[in-house]
Specification:
The structure holds 2 protein chains of 2 kinds. Chain A is mainly alpha-helical. Helix content of chain A is 79%, strand content 1%. Chain A has a domain at 28-140 and 149-235. Chain A has 15 helices and 2 strands. A two-stranded antiparallel sheet of chain A has the order 1-2. The two termini of chain A are 30 Å apart. In chain B, the strands form 2 sheets. Chain B has a 6-stranded mixed beta sheet with strand order 6-7-8-3-9-10, sandwiched between helices. A 4-stranded antiparallel beta sheet of chain B has the order 2-1-4-5, with helices on one face. The longest helix of chain B is centred in the C-terminal third of the chain and has 16 residues, at 172-187. The radius of gyration of chain B is 18 Å and the shape is globular. Chain B has helices at 42-49, 73-78, 96-106, 113-126, 142-155, 172-187, 199-205, 223-227, 230-237, and strands spanning 4-13, 16-26, 31-35, 57-62, 66-67, 81-83, 160-164, 191-195, 208-213, 216-221. Chain B has 9 helices and 10 strands. Classes of the chains: A mainly alpha, B alpha/beta. Chain A binds chain B through residues 176, 179-180, 182-183, 185-187, 189-198, and chain B through 50, 52, 72-74, 77-78, 82-83, 85, 89-94, 98, 101-103, 105-108, 113, 116, 152-153, 156.
């Protein structure tokens, strides 16, 4: 049997703490913050699989979020399907949508792909605003709020989703599939000559990425009880996913986790203290990180760990 | 039927005739040198054999049954053709080991993790990079990158290896080392086509040499025959 490292115990304690949190914290606001953090961690990981692992920067990921949200809203409202059951469907539909536009657009490289994804995101939002018979138009869809309402089940639901998605991202990172994605990110021509089916790998990465973000959107709809194109399909949401990853560390395992934590802390606390100033604070942080630590917080932590490791080694001998 | 048959191959880049009606064949186990002045169409020829470009006209047939132009680039790797790039293309953010693992994993279909690791280790030991396997490719100097380029191509377990100027920019000692490596690769039964400007290397290693000039074959033969061919001397030194 493998020895359990201190780090593994540390991770285990964090997860345990998160699972026990609702037992001793009854403040609904804290629970809400927890839910939103897990949600943003999940969808940021989704973006990272395509943008961070594969190097295909998308400005259109809100489209996946919105499709997930509307899948749940429509199936629940119109067909009475239990919202929990719609979560995988939201993910699958988002993934299918990704394959649909990824097939032509993933032929574009670098900036051209990024620009095209802006078009995808905005076109989807506009489509949702005008397709009133399906989506309720720009006034959105209101979902039935139950009489007795507690946030705790949502907390566990989202925690489990975030946890599973995180494990999935760790697995992808270390798998053959992940190796292929990172190779594509570094040099697509070399990848192709070394036998990687690059069109297939890119589209699989996009589908997985869309699936994860779609799950997030689906959860969001049943938690907020309201979907509207200007919210779930917003360009701001797409950009936020990129910001979170840049701050946390693009293409790293923990990047989306750190990034989402910082993002929500800033959003909630700075927004209360200095309304309108929180974007400025976030922008400043972003500039500092891009200049001094392009690998984000995850890169910073790795750097500090190396420094400490060196000191220890020097001291030990 | 030869190992590789190139028949009447032409590549046209919007009016620029890079390769013009080239026909040659390669025998299994042979080490063929491909030389010629700059812009003669050597790398274009490699790009067509490895599937990066499709020939404008003509065809390339591998092992008598694989029509190269009908296959995607990654499939061409799977049937056993590997190449190095003249301007090396390492995965800059990966370690040497991971670079080679990519080749080992994806070079043939359905390679498992255990096997890929074994192949990678074997190739790295063979090319003398095993001790340095944890170094990031982006931090390597040019000679090491060239060596990594060869290692990564070998990890795909090719039967035909296309080497594009792997000696360029190396000092005499490194050139000797790389020549030894190329010889050893051939002794393992890999057929090699080598583009090279370092005459000492190409004359010393090749069994047969093809000379390209302005996209056409101007000479073909043993190193001695080619070195004494007046056409070749004219192409290299002018009138």
């Amino acid at each position: 049997m493998k020895r359990i490292s201190k780090l593994q115990i540390f991770y285990f304690l964090i997860v345990l703490f998160l699972f026990l949190l609702p037992l001793f914290i009854h403040n609904q606001y804290v629970i809400h913050l927890g839910i939103m953090t897990f949600l943003f961690i999940t969808i940021a990981i989704g973006w990272n699989v395509l943008g961070g692992y594969t190097g295909q920067i998308s400005f259109g990921h809100a489209s996946f979020f919105g499709i997930g949200a509307y899948t749940t809203a429509i199936l629940w409202l119109r067909m009475g399907i239990h919202p929990l059951l719609t979560i995988p469907l939201g993910g699958l539909l988002a993934a299918a949508f990704g394959v649909l536009w990824g097939y032509p657009l993933l032929r574009l490289r670098g900036y051209f792909f990024a620009i095209a994804t802006i078009g995808v995101g905005e076109a989807t939002r506009v489509l949702a605003s005008f397709w009133e018979s399906l989506t309720g138009g720009s006034s959105g869809l209101t979902l039935p709020v139950p009489k007795v309402f507690s946030k705790v089940p949502f907390y566990y639901e989202m925690l489990i989703i975030a946890f599973l998605v995180f494990l999935l991202s760790v697995w992808v990172y270390h798998s053959k599939f992940g190796l292929g994605l990172f190779a594509i990110k570094d040099d697509i021509d070399a990848s192709e000559t070394l036998g990687i089916n690059t069109p297939l790998y890119k589209i699989l990465a996009l589908a997985l990425s869309g699936f994860i973000v779609g799950i997030g959107g689906s959860f969001y709809a049943q938690y907020i009880f309201y979907v509207e194109p200007g919210d779930v399909f917003s360009f701001e949401k797409s950009v936020n996913l990129i910001l979170i990853n840049i701050v946390g560390g693009v293409g790293t395992i923990f990047g989306p986790v750190f990034g989402a934590l910082i993002f929500l802390v800033l959003q909630e606390f700075v927004l209360v203290l200095f309304p309108n100033l929180h974007l400025l604070v976030y922008g400043l942080l972003l500039v500092l990180i891009i200049i001094y630590q392009p690998n984000g917080l995850a890169g910073l932590i790795a750097f500090v760990k190396r420094k400490i490791g060196k000191k220890k080694r020097v001291g030990g001998t | 039927m030869a190992f590789l048959d190139v028949t009447n191959c032409t590549k046209n880049f919007g009016g620029l005739l890079a390769v013009n009606d080239v026909t040659f064949s390669v025998k299994e186990g042979e080490l063929l040198g491909l030389i010629g002045p700059n812009g003669a169409g050597k790398t274009t020829m490699f790009n067509m054999i490895s599937g990066v470009y499709k020939p404008t006209t003509g065809q390339i047939v591998y092992r008598g049954r694989f029509h190269i132009h009908a296959l995607n680039t990654h499939r061409i790797c799977h049937i056993g053709i590997a190449r190095t790039y003249q301007v090396v293309k390492p995965f800059l953010n990966m370690t040497i080991l991971k670079n080679v693992l990519v080749g080992a994993y994806f070079g043939k279909r359905g390679v498992l993790k255990r096997d890929a690791t074994k192949i990678a280790q074997e190739v790295l030991e063979f090319t003398g990079l095993w001790e340095r396997r944890e170094e990031i490719a982006g931090s390597l100097n040019v000679p090491s990158r060239k060596r990594l380029e060869i290692a990564r191509a070998l990890a795909t377990q090719p039967d035909l290896l296309l080497l594009d100027e792997v000696m360029a920019g190396l000092n005499p000692a490194e050139t000797q080392k790389t020549m030894g490596l190329v010889k050893q690769i051939q002794e393992r039964g890999v057929t090699i086509i080598m583009i090279e400007h370092v005459m000492q290397a190409v004359m010393g290693l090749s069994e047969r040499i093809i000379v390209l000039n302005y996209g056409e074959i101007i000479a073909e033969g043993t190193p001695e025959e080619v070195a004494n061919n007046p056409e070749v001397i004219k192409a290299y030194l002018g009138d």
